Recover the amino acids of this structure.
């Protein structure tokens, strides 16, 4: 990247309004840190959380330090947003990607960028359908956070820096320009206190996280165990290993350049480097399943099954985990309907 283009991108990021689309735990952390660093941030999220922020500021705690941040613009409905944004950080659940993209279609500036910060596969493609190839980046977020109460966001674990970049197989000829934008965004977020790097191809990074998620998320949600307990359990660990092996085979078959020569090499990295710093963490899928009754399983293990079926590969462990989560979602809904009938 030339010095001139680096300067241009820095100026663009310094001045542009930023929208956090999905101000849950991750979105709130990023929005609050960017606002404190001097950026113009708007949070789009749930009403109770935003009302608490309006009253007392956003209280951030945990591994990135303790602070209370005020001054952000707040909206609980896309229709209430004003103006256009040069940067949108999309942190909604994967099942809401298409609807939020449609709602924000006219809110992204012509020269702006929207970044998917979401778990799972298919989000970048969904955003491209609405915003076009030249305005979409992906990101891998592998730090854990929670909203312990409205108006608060707590960082629980931080395994690796956030990574952002284009998907050359999807962005095609626009990838070099988007890579420059990714470097500017990464520098901005990193300077705000959230360790972040830029990569030239986000897909291998996203797939590496998929290997992590397909093993941990559904089992942690179903068994209500943290990552350390899952890895230590002699009956659970073989299930995780098989889920990883199936996902690894799918990644290779679709041509993803994973930075591991084999599933076994990844598993060594998984147990020795990824699990230890997140040993006490529980997946957000556990909260989603038992509190909301809806998860992003279709973009995780379900996507592995979908791709494996298309390619003629085996994915029976991922299929089992997907079915168990979907059954648990239905059980949650049935329980809620029963509660409503009993209250009448």
């Amino acid at each position: 990247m030339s010095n001139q283009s680096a300067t241009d991108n820095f100026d663009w990021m310094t001045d542009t309004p930023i929208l956090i689309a999905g101000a849950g735990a991750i979105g709130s952390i990023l929005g609050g840190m960017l606002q404190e660093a001097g950026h113009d941030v708007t949070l789009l999220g749930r009403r109770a959380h935003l009302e608490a922020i309006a009253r007392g500021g956003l209280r951030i705690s945990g591994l990135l330090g303790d602070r209370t941040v005020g001054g952000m613009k707040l909206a609980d409905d896309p229709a209430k947003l004003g103006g256009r944004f040069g940067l949108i950080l999309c942190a909604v659940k994967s099942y809401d990607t298409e609807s939020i993209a449609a709602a924000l279609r006219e809110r992204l500036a012509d020269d702006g960028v929207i970044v998917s910060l979401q778990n799972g596969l298919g989000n970048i493609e969904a955003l491209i359908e609405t915003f076009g190839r030249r305005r979409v980046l992906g990101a891998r977020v592998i730090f854990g956070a929670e909203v312990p109460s409205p108006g608060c966001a707590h960082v629980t674990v931080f395994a690796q820096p956030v990574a952002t970049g284009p998907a050359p197989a999807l962005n095609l000829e626009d990838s070099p320009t988007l890579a420059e934008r990714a470097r500017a965004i990464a520098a901005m977020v990193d300077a705000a206190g959230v360790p972040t790097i830029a990569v030239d191809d986000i897909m291998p990074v996203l797939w590496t996280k998929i290997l992590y998620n397909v093993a941990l998320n559904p089992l942690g949600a179903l068994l209500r165990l943290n990552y350390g307990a899952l890895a230590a359990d002699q009956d659970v660990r073989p299930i995780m290993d098989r889920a990883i092996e199936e996902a690894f085979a799918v990644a290779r078959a679709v041509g993803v350049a994973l930075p591991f020569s084999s599933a076994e090499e990844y598993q060594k990295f998984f147990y020795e480097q990824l699990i230890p710093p997140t040993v006490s963490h529980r997946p957000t899928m556990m909260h989603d399943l038992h509190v909301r009754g809806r998860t992003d399983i279709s973009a995780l293990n379900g996507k592995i099954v979908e791709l494996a079926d298309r390619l003629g590969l085996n994915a029976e462990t991922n299929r089992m985990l997907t079915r168990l989560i979907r059954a648990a979602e239905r059980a949650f809904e049935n329980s809620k309907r029963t509660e409503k009938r009993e209250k009448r």
Remarks:
- The first helix runs from residue 3 to 15.
- Residues 204-343 form a domain with the N-(1-d-carboxylethyl)-l-norvaline Dehydrogenase; domain 2 fold (CATH 1.10.1040.10).
- Confidence is low (pLDDT under 50) at residues 1-7.
